[in-house]
Specification:
alpha+beta; globular; 4 strands; four-stranded antiparallel sheet; 2 helices
Amino acid sequence: MKIHAPIYLQIYERSETEWFFHGGKTFHNPRGIKTDFESILAMHDLNKINVLVSMFRINGGKAGYYLADLGTMMPILQIRYPG
């Protein structure tokens, strides 16, 4: 499955004890903005801890997928694993 989204929308996954960032490939970058994970966070004056704390607050860090808007640092969605 491919998802095309602006760079400031980030997908994270929570397992029982770990968080995973689901990055993607850049397909259009006319301004040459750095697109590695650390640069994206720095561009929005964030760090990994800020993001993960916000994700955890959505639903107590339950397992599933999370979507964050780094432009506003708003966690906008949490999809729990089935079952």
